[in-house]
Design a protein that fits this description.
With 203 residues, the chain is of the alpha/beta class. The chain has five helices and ten strands. An eight-stranded mixed sheet has the order 3-2-1-4-5-6-10-8, with helices on both faces. Strand 4, helix 3 and strand 5 form a beta-alpha-beta unit. The radius of gyration is 16 Å and the shape is globular.
Length: 203
Amino acid sequence: MRIMVIGARGRAGKAAVSEAVRRGHEVTAVARSGGDGLVAGDVTDVDRIAELAAGQDAVIAAVYDGGSDPTAFFPAAATALADGLSKAGVERLVWVGLSTILPTADGTLLMDTPGYPNEHRSFFLAHQAALDVFQASPLDWVSVAPTGDFNHAAPARTGSYRVATASASDLISYADLAIALVDEVDRPQHHRTAIGVVPEQVV
């Protein structure tokens, strides 16, 4: 398949590129500034997204802009993706999301659980605003996030994962998250929804 990965310079995007290449897919790796084998592309530029997405089977987006206001960036990125992919005739979008806006076992959003740090709540809500944009579009989208956080101490690829509710103590490597991202391109199981993934061995 032909897969475009946007945000390919970041850790999640880089892992997604590696996983897709491992499976023999033809990958277009996109980053805002390009260079180092990456194609230049701004995720908020509708026309550039449409141009790069032409002929692709699916898009994986792992985007972040630390220099911008997240409340503006994430909805703008989502709008550009929805409009640009529609122009290009690409239906499948796999978005790297956040655990904080996923439900825990009792249905409470992780960010609303007692004691959860909320100094970055505007960032959490900006991610939800992006999902609201996708929901209003005709895209066949899925948001895939860790159920808790990324495991920086143990970054190895275990080769397995499972879908689960959010839990702040859960950790997953970027490499294992990438397996879930590419699986949702190869064999889509979730449509127009947000899911969390955790390593298979975590109880």
